[in-house]
Structures
1.
Amino acid sequence: MSKILITGASGFVGSWLVKEALNRGLDTFAGIRSTSSKKFLQDDRIKFVNLDFTDHDALRQMLKENSFDMIIHNAGVTRTHQDSIYFKVNSEYTIDFAKIALDTLRDNLKKFLFISSIEAYGSADDTAEGVVSNDIKPSPRTTYGLSKLRAEKGLFDIAGLPLLILRPTAVFGPGEKDLFEFWQTVKRFRITPSVGDAEIKYSFVYVKDLVRVVVDAVTSDITGKSYFVSDGRIHKMKDFLGHIADSLSLKTFGFTIPFFVLDAAVVVTGLIDKVTGKKSLLNPEQMAKAKARNWDCDIADLVKDFDYQAEFSLQDAIHETTQWYKSNNWL
């Protein structure tokens, strides 16, 4: 039985990756911090390892003791008040860990799969083809995206690393907390707002579709490639929010928030940030991300190499997610 280590296993995507790996019959190790919650990691088949990416000796010992065949490196930070933490955790820790894994496991390591993000490449706004692909020059709009891009470049520079990189677009599903705010907004205020322009092209991927293709990739013979992951369709925010409203059986009021209103809000939050020394979620680089008009991405290689096709429509995925939120008293 192949042994797989999944880092960041206590998080939203990580916990779903653990479930998928177990369902595939893999000897599954969940890499977590000593302080991590195991709320979504209750299967008795899970084996746990504590990870401290600052302790290289402990990492080497852990890898030596377990001799993994495959690693999915999913650990990272998506939101922090200090930009330096993005580069420390998402870039430096990732590259160091990959080097240690390759040096320790050597020929036994068949695959090191890194979960990156479409934000590493930015939007398709200025592309000739109108789509984000491996053929365009990366242009991250956020510090988070830049930290992921630096990690990618560092990983590709490691000679002999059996690397694959997957870049999901916006991921949602049961247990997700950031996009869950849309569900809360729709339910509480009975509104379905679009930001800036109702015609902005968004892309999404349901977590069950994502983890299925990730495990397909990590168990394949393919190395040295990178892929974007979405459901293969383009969506408008009004449709995404409309499906949420339908799943909640609510009639809502739809409208568009002009960018100038958000720009004014950013000025206010910027002043607050100077006083508090923190970084608000509504900040200039997040506004730059929000103003992108096209997040379409090319998944042709993913389809070709792994016969990938999203099993869930956006509507069905949202309805299933809503039922989970209700069943778990989130809504």
Note: Residues 3-172+203-233+295-311 form a domain with the Rossmann fold fold (CATH 3.40.50.720).
2.
Amino acid sequence: MKKYFKWAGIALIAAVFIGTFVFLYQKSVPKVTTYEINTAKVLDIEKTTIITGKIEPRDEVNIKPQISGIITELYKEAGDVVKKDEVIAKVKVIPDMSSLSSAENRVKLAEISLKQAQTDFDRMKNLYTEKVVSAEDYEKSEVALKNAKMEMNTAKDALHIVRDGISLNNAKMSTTLIRSTIDGIVLDVPVKVGNSVILSNSFNDGTTIATVANMQDLIFRGKIDETEVGRVITGMPVEITVGAIQDLKLNATLEYIAPKAVEENGANLFEIKAAIQLPGDVKIRAGYSANAEIVLERATKTICVPEASLEFVGDSTYVYVLTDSTSATQKFERRAVTTGTSDGINIEVKKGLKAGDKVRGIERIEKLED
């Protein structure tokens, strides 16, 4: 048994010795570093920025009532097409008691005035027939009667408006019928039959009965970083990608850049708007998330190499040009270059290279020399 342990110990020591020898040998063997080779090519290159945002209708109008009351009828629902002045809902008036009382009292006073004016006119007419009074006095009584009749009609009309929301003189323009103010599509109807609504005036915003928008006139709204806003100007072309619709790209034109930044998460951002050119066969819903791509710089038919081929030392930029690939090791010449536009992958070389030059790329995995 002791003999067995003795030989096992010797074998273990030998294995450790051989492993150490192999490791040291491998460390001492010279290694060769090789690089990928990139070729300078003539390309078109663009520097772009991507802006996230959403698609909105340019004009989105909240339809509000001109009277307070209760919704009795809804003629439209979300998604329906409406024309300007088309009826969306009907409201039953709940009159203000103070206004109603004033309107009723006005009618009563108008009735008394009319009755008195009629009596005065009849008396004056008889006297004028008998040539007791002058024509001037007769005409004055006639004018007073006409004024009294007009006041009576006005008082009754005011009473109907306060009580029923309908004008006797122009029933078509009834304030109980809530009409669309623009052509478009109903985006939302936040009320139901039976809901109370408040009129819109200078003291409150009123109840929104429906939201209507022209969905053929859409804009992209997003925010661009302060480091890039100086490179964009109104009128620049924009390409819109809608995330919810696969393979759909829309052309747009930048039409607005905010003059003031807003701070979000420590960054200064400027709002932009772009007018979308919507094809006739494409339907877009309001609120879609979208990305806008704007070309900030463009270089056409220029010499380019991958950015990974560059070496930056201070303010200088260098590439390593392959001079010999026939020997066992690659040989390079360091050369200063002047760069231009970059798209994040390739970069323009304005000076220092010509098309077809081969430059050093990223380092490959090291391998043992034979």
Note: Helices lie at 2-28, 97-129, 135-164, 226-229.
